[in-house]
Amino acid sequence: MASPSSKQTGPRAPWQRRLFIAAASTLAAVGVFAASYSSAEEGRPIPPPALDEPLKSDVETAVFAGGCFWGVQGVFQHVAGVKEAISGYAGGRQEDAHYQIVGTGRTGHAESVRVTFDPRKVSYGRLLQIYFSVAHDPTELNRQGPDRGTQYRSTIFPASDEQAKVAKAYIAQLDAAHVFSKPIATTVEPGRSFYPAESYHQNFLTLNPTYPYIVINDMPKIETLKRLYPEAYRVDPVLVAVAKPTN
User: Fold this and answer.
1) In the chain, helix, strand, coil percent, each to 5?
2) What local confidence, expressed as pLDDT, does residue 129 receive?
3) Which H, E and C letters describe 11-52, residue by residue?
4) Do the Cβ atoms of 114 and 173 come closer than 8 Å?
5) Does domain 6-228 have CATH number 3.90.1150.10?
6) Where are the catalytic residues (predicted)?
């Protein structure tokens, strides 16, 4: 069985990840793997942010990191008001923004998703609420599910000072209310550029719904989004046009 981080090493890393999770799916069949889900991954409502970004334009961007970008992208692609969600890398240099290099955990990059949205339909604050309650577990430090390393850290890369202010205030609000059983580990890293990931990573959840990793770790998030925020859920995801099938 490959190690949890083996997806990031070597040219066949995505297939190594498939083998690892396929083995884990055997445990899931008897309910053992399910016990590893955190309360955040199971999904539960959390209060909206007391402070939100003021409406300034009809198109904005936000960048979120929360573990493997496949699931984070998939969640935001199903959010009404989102115009595009692209998987990529943020936190490091442009020359290091490549899957195999980021996988070393030494680039400063985190697997991230750039969300382009219409703030008249979904506010930045609502995106944060979905990010913290659905897209990942914000109490985990440098890991999500079976994936470990700084490239899987929980991080918000604000596009403006206003976004940074709202994100920091919301983290403080959730921690003060003890919404989660542990302190939030999410960092806010301003001034970092985003670089799109390779085409085979785009729309991965939609193109590979039976992929064991997706079935176990990410499809439940889509159901949680639909259950917790039905008014924000869109049935047909908004897809990245340049993506190609991974077969």
Assistant:
1) 40, 15, 45
2) 98
3) CCHHHHHHHHHHHHHHHHHCCCHHHHCCHHHHCCCCCCCCCC
4) no
5) no
6) 68
From the number of C-beta atoms within 10 Å of its C-beta (0-12, 13-18, 19+), residue 56 rates as exposed
The answer to whether 62 touches 159, Cβ cutoff 8 Å, is yes
Q: What is the tens place of the pLDDT at every residue in 126-182?
A: 999 999 999 999 999 999 999 999 999 999 999 999 999 999 999 999 999 999 999
With contact defined as beta carbons under 8 Å apart, do 233 and 39 qualify?
A: no
Give the residue carrying structure tokens 């939609």.
Answer: 206
Q: Tell me which of 24, 40, 62, 68 is the catalytic residue.
A: 68
Catalytic residue at 68? yes
Find the mean pLDDT for residues 105-116. 98
More confident residue, 132 or 12: 132
CA distance 51 to 167: 9
CB of 100 closer than 8 Å to CB of 7: no
Q: What is the pLDDT of residue 42?
A: 58
Q: Which helix (H) or strand (E) holds 117?
A: strand 110-117
Residue 174 host element (H or E): helix 161-176
Residue 61: strand, helix, or coil: strand
